[in-house]
């Protein structure tokens, strides 16, 4: 498409010359030739002088704004009260409430002007009030733990890897810095389906062993996982010390009495981990890295998926492990600062 040329505005001096030459009896064509401008420009200025009594540009002749400042504030409140409303829905509600007749594009422009941009909702687990208090209590209890203290922790978790991850996104409208507000999140549910379950652990010393599990994890299979994978991993990570802690989440198979007895029998100290807190467990970051790598491999069957899982897990470096453990004091601080809401981790 050819570039649209910008209209040239005549100077007041040239407009005066047009009127002077016309007054002397020159034709519009002759005036245009003398002043080297178009005949249309001469004619328009002549008509303007005759009808308005001036050739100056008229201000305030553009289209008036469809909404007032008060209307705009009302729209912003509507969006903040329901951050998942589309611009089309907001446009209808705004017209109903304030009588503003406009398009969805106008709604988006008003909200963008207020710093409210439509973004993908970050996915975080739903946290109820009891769980919020537990998260805050845990963060306060461990706010003075140093990196050296966290270096004595073996972090663990299960994760589900799918052959065909299902894409999906939820758009919300938010300002900068509001990504982790509860109203801007898309709550997730654990294990929404998949093909291969993996258990793994790591510490600042590096990765431990992994176990690819078939079917659902129960107390029997979890005890086998701990005996065959946690104990050898702990021996590798802390060969000359028993001064370490084991971290696990609150899955039913982790907290059942038989597992607690097993922990006591093996003199394993566990951290009292708050529920619905994957953002506090740095192994989740490792899972995310590995999932991106697996997506790049595009496995076509379970056998390939298992093979790629083993490959990518053993590519995790000690430097990566160190950096994740070093983030633990910042995670505790983030929970306290956010007053137990979800963090960026």
UniProtKB/TrEMBL annotation:
Pfam families: DDE_3, HTH_Tnp_Tc3_2. GO terms for biological process: DNA integration; DNA transposition. Residues 153-306 form the Tc1-like transposase DDE domain. InterPro entries: Homeodomain-like_sf, RNaseH_sf, Tc1-like_DDE_dom, Transpos_IS630-like, Transposase_5, Transposase_Tc1-like. Residues 72-144 form the Transposase Tc1-like domain. GO terms for molecular function: DNA binding. It comes from the Eukaryota. Gene3D superfamilies: Ribonuclease H-like superfamily/Ribonuclease H. This is Transposable element Tcb1 transposase. It comes from Anabarilius grahami.
């Amino acid at each position: 498409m050819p570039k649209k040329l910008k209209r040239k505005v005549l100077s007041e001096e040239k407009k005066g010359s047009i009127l002077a030459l016309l007054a002397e009896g020159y034709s519009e064509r002759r005036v245009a030739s003398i002043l080297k401008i178009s005949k249309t420009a001469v004619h328009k200025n002549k008509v303007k002088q005759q009808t308005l009594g001036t050739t100056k540009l008229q201000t305030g002749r553009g289209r008036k704004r469809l909404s007032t400042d008060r209307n705009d504030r009302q729209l912003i409140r509507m969006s903040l009260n329901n951050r998942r409303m589309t611009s089309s829905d907001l446009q209808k509600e705004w017209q109903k409430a304030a009588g503003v007749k406009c398009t969805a594009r106008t709604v988006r422009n008003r909200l963008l002007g207020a710093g409210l941009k439509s973004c993908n909702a970050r996915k975080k687990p739903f946290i109820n009030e009891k769980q919020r208090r537990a998260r805050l209590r845990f963060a306060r209890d461990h706010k003075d733990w140093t990196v050296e203290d966290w270096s004595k922790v073996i972090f663990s978790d299960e994760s589900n890897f799918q052959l065909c991850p299902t894409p999906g996104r939820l758009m919300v409208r938010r300002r900068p810095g509001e990504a982790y507000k509860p109203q801007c999140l898309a709550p997730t549910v654990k294990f929404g389906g998949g093909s291969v379950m993996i258990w793994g652990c790591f510490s600042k010393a590096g990765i431990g062993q992994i176990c690819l599990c078939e079917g659902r994890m129960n107390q029997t299979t979890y005890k086998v996982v701990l005996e065959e994978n946690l104990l050898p991993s702990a021996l590798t990570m802390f060969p000359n010390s028993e001064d370490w802690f084991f971290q696990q989440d609150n899955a039913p198979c982790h907290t059942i009495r038989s597992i607690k007895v097993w922990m006591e029998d093996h003199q394993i100290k566990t951290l009292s981990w708050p529920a619905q807190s994957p953002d506090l467990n740095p192994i989740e970051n490792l899972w995310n890295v590995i999932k991106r790598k697996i997506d790049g491999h595009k496995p076509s069957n379970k056998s390939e998926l298992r093979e790629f899982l083993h490959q990518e897990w053993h590519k995790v470096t000690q430097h990566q492990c160190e950096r994740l453990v070093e983030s633990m004091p910042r995670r505790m601080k983030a929970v306290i600062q956010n007053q137990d809401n979800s963090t960026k981790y």
